[in-house]
Structure formats: structure tokens, C-alpha cells
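Ticket #4471: structure output looks truncated?

Reporter: J.K.
Steps to reproduce: submitted the chain below (492 residues) through the standard prediction queue, then opened the result file.
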Amino acid sequence: MAHTTANNGTAAGSERTAAHTEAELRHFAQPEPDVVPPDGVRRETFLPVTRTALIDRLTRPNAWDDHSEARDASRFFRYLAYWRQQQYAAETLRLEQTYEPFNPDTDLLLTRQYTDAERQQMQKRLVGHMEHLLEQANFVRIDPKDVAKILEGQTHYGLDFELDLDAFEELVICYRGASTKKDQKRTLRKFFRKTEFEVPVFQRLFVLFKIKPDDVRVSEIMKERGVSEKKATKIVKKLRSRLPPAVRADNIYMKMFRDIPRADIEMIFPNTRVKFRMLDKVKLGITGAGGIGAGALGAAGKIAVAASNPIPAAMAIAGLGGVAFRQVMSAFNQHQKYMVVMAQNLYFHSLADNRGVLILLADRAAEEDVKEEILLYSVLAKEQVYREDLEAVDRGIEQFLHSTFGINVDFDLDDALGRLLADGIVSESADGLMYALPPAAAAQHIDAMWDRFLDDLPDTVDGEGREFVGQPGGADSGPVATADAHLSDAAQ
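Returned output as attached by the reporter:
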């Protein structure tokens, strides 16, 4: 198999490296015409293809010098996948202990009380770790202040919301897989026949939030609006009345949704208030004004003759009250209808909550890491690549993904290379040459790392996720007494 030689970083050398890289990868698929994305379209680093599909393409016999090398590559990729999953599993165990004091779904006995300073430190650590997991799982962060993306007015389902973003002490919103799906609706222009249209969606949408404590929010309202503490307390109490009773300020909530229309992000927050659309206001206003107006005119005529016969007047007043009551109930029923629509939509879009989100994200992050690494390794193990050629390698991998799977992504080469270098699967010489272990040697290297894995783990971690080594102890009075002594010492 031909090798590419670096050309001192010149443009010609990079172009040849890109061509060779693409040629290496095109052993696994038939080439297709290039499709250039439109200007302004952001490409995601998320690879919307399974690890199994990639391994199948990258380990075809004709992709390597001989069949045995292809089998070794397949074995190495499996080892690498198990290794990454185990690394994230170990991180998840530590992170779960940090999350336990904030978990609203916990059914475990909390045996330790934390000071405010300790909780603040754990909260900062938890949010930082979650942001790292989201980045590794190739999620894209959305700024909560980005009104253009979040507060887009009427939603896909015809609802309109009002949202108070200032209520949150912590708020992280991320998406992965921005795409579209087809839906149908009836329109007046088509004489109420169903019309198909495209709905922009987020295939995965993550939100982490923590509500500010009442006293903090009261202080903010006093400063922002220049009101007294009593008035600010009333305002906060009214705003917090939108929250479900189970939502507490000392908990951190994490939610994962699937196929959420982009215009419906407001729907996922606990303090969202459903508003009437302008069409509803007009409809309720016209029917209300007409009904009450007609009732008032009829009642006025009957009240005018009330002196001779008061019964018709009383009946007219009662009828007017009934009309007003029906209008109030119409508005109430319309609001309830909106709430049912919102609840049904969230039910079918919900994917995971709280601790389940943590575990799901760790699994997705490991999956994305492995896919990136096996793509890069498949080039470095067969090509002579220098550091100045990595940009061309990046382009070649992106071309392979498009030609093979029809996906247009921004491959994260630097992240994958950093992990391969850290694990010793790839090394860099003084002149910048990237050397990758052959597949058989790479598999043996992962095997040796597994052997050292448990030895390198700490004995345990404390409730804040800090590692420490337990101290042996106990008396020579039998196994039961020794165990009791150990446990009693630990409980002090």
C-alpha cells in the first residue's frame, strides 16, 4: 500500500495527503459526487452512524494488507470500545455520588449533612462534569439568552408560552442532531385538507436546571424593581406558583428529550406558563362580548318593568350571570386543553430523567469517542502522516463519511488524537510523524491496560466524589467482630 510523505507543510503536500487519505478510506465504499453544504449551515461533530456500521466498513479484508490484519483490527476496535465504556463507567460511579445530594428521585438514606460551602462546591463539580460529558457526546450548547432560538413565539403545536429564565440558578441547554421531520396539518387555504410540511427538530435535547432559593430571588426582585421586601416576596410567591410542588430549590434536575420541535423548547421548563394566542383572545372576546351584550340588553328591558313584576328581572339577572359564567368557563377549558396538549407532547418526547440522563450521556460519550478514534486510527495505521498533514486527514475522513453514509459532519480530529496519544496507541516523533501501533499490538496494549485498571483504582470515594484510601483496622476477635469493628470505625 502506498504511503504519503510529508512535503514540509506545503499546500501541495497537504493536498496529496488529503487525496491519499481519501483513497485509503474509499477502499470501504463506492465514491459519490461531492455535495457542498450551503453557506451558513453549521456542521455538527455528532456522527449519526452506529459504531457497528463503522467497524464493518473499516475492517473489510480489502482495506488492509492481508486478512489477518483486518481480523486484528476488528479485535482491536472491540477492545477499544470496551475500554472506553469502562472508563466512562468509572467516571459515572464517581459522578453519581456527587449527584446524590441533589437527586430529586433518590430513594436512598442520606447519612451525611453538607454545609452550604460543600454543596456549592459539589454543585460546581457536578455541572462541570455534565458539561464535559455533553461535549464528549458531541452535543451543542444553546445560550439560554439566545432569544432567537428559544423564545420563537407560537410553537409547532399551536401553543404560546411565557417563560421566566431569571428563576434559574443553573441552566444548561444542549442539543444534538438538528434535522427536520415531516408532519401534517389542516389549513384553510387547502379547504382544511391535510398538508405535509417540514418541522425543524432536535433529535436529542438536554436540559439541566436548578431553581434559585426564594431569598436569593427576593433580593434580585428588590434590586431590579426597587420594591420592598414584602412586595418582592409576594411577586416571587406568585411567580413560583407556576412551579409543581415537587420542584425544590435544593435539587438539580436533568432531562433528556427526543425529536423536540425547535420552537417548543419553552415547553420543557417547569415554570412555563401557557398563554392564549391572539386568535383565542379574539374568539373569546367576540363570543363573550356578544353573549354578555345580548344578555345585558334583555336584562335592561326586564329590569325597566321590574316595578310591576320583579320575577322577570330576577330571571334576567340570573341569565346574565349564567352567560358570564359560561365565558369564564370557556377560557378555563381552553387553558386546560392547552395544558393537556403540552403534557401529552412531553410524555411522548421524554427520554430520560436525572440519574438516567447521567448514565445515558456517559454511554453516548463513550460511543462518540470510539467512533472518532477508529476512524482516525484507520488512517494513521496505514498512512505516513505528519502533524502538518492532519488538516488534510480531517478532510479525507469527512469525505469518507459523506461518500459512504451520506452525512456531512465536522470531524473532531484533535479530540480523537489526544485520546489515542494519551493511551499510547499513537505516538509522535520529534519531527512530528504520527506512529500508530499495528492492530495486533494495539489490541495487546489495550489488554495490558485492562490488567492495570483495577490496580490503579482508589479503594473508594467519599460522598463528594473525592478519592481516598481506606485504613484497615479491627481486633483479633473473629470475623464478625472484626467486620463490626471495621464498619464502626468507618461510621464514626
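Triage note (M.O.): checked the attachment and the full C-alpha cell line is present. Residues 1-18, 26-41, 467-483 have pLDDT under 50 and may be disordered.
Status: closed, working as intended.
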